[in-house]
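**Folding the chain**
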Amino acid sequence: MTGRSSLAAVSPLDGRYARYTEPLVPYASEQALIRARVRVEVEYLAALADTVEEFDLTDEERDRLRDCYESFDEDDAAVVKQLETEGWKGYSATNHDVKAVEYFVREHAPESAHPFIHFGLTSEDVNNLAQRLLVKPAVEDVLAPKLRELRDTLTEMARANRDVAMLAHTHGQPATPTTFGKELAVYAARLGRSIAELDRAAANLTGKLAGASGTYAAHQVAYPDIDWPAFSESFVASLGLSHRALSTQVNPCDDLQSVFDALRNANNVLLDMDRDIWLYVSKRYLGQDTVAGETGSSTMPHKVNPIDFENSEGNLSKANSDLVFLGDYVTTSRLQRDLSDSTVKRNIGAAFAHCLIGYEKASRGLAKVTPNEQVMSEELESTPEIIGEAVQTILRREGHDDAYERVKELTRGQRVTLDDFRALFDDLDVSESVRAELHAIAPTNYVGVAADLVDDIDR
């Protein structure tokens, strides 16, 4: 995008939503991928110098090599790209992105190291490690923290509104009352479990370094006395990844699928929340703070639309579609290797970006909503039939085997009042203490232990 307006971006991720996706640039851009490949090649070269007897690097040479990825910038990325597409400094165009990285590293390495750059490796040895060196921090440093912020917000709102009674709806119909805080607590608890799954998936990302068919053949034929599987395990662990001992040319990517699935689970929780909050706004259970100067509708000036939740829903739905596709695709490869997954994996960052936009929009939406307790209370009071469950349950306790039928006859499909219930109570053959118990029931207080359940968020 250098020198070009964001308005010319092909994707909204780099155009309209660029300000939201900026935190992912260090992990999702092509420059980031090139830098990660350089890091793998350099660290592999250093590990070889510690292992192969006739090859060594001085501390100064190691520092210079590491500096070529630690200080890697846009100009360096341009050089690698030029090596791939046009040629550079006497190198012909490689038309191969990993080979271009190899030549870039050669320019920073002493001549004695040149034969050992990319020694015994296939491109996928470099790529699978580089990709996970980007996926891991993208999840751990960008996406998971944003999800934790959302969970914290939901937890705070749940606690603040634990006693705010409202009408629940099952099948879209008035149901047993609940509290707004308890409903938010459900989302907070679900999201917490999803975050834990995501943390585990990111912590268990794996790497392979085993050559063209996963057999260490090139390494073994050159240096048969070296334990190459042990070398590989140590090297992969030094990058902060778990070692994949058995592979074809490719890392099977079940670990990436676990990350995608965990993200999708978290997204599903938020999608459920987005839609429910949207409905609560529609029912006027929730009001929205207005933003000075903001237009709600181009033709209806009075409107304050729940656009943040709608935007979150759209982006999370797009993310989930991409995550399902990615998870299904990257875990398959014809025989020992085919290249179709290469272009697919370049879209991991886009899926993550839609996640991030969705989280940001949901967060903004939650910051604007305020419970309209008066509306909630008025609707509860105007729907007295919802205490029917309480009435028939108490009557069952008192031995009335026709309790359900009597309440059903009074309430099903009918508009009833509390006075209708009181007339029923006065006609019942129950003790005065039970009659008083029934008279005390009201839609606004029939919420069980909803307020206490908020404390179970962390269980």
Notes: The first helix runs from residue 18 to 21. The longest strand covers residues 173-179. Residues 297-303 have pLDDT under 50 and may be disordered. The two ends are 47 Å apart (CA to CA).
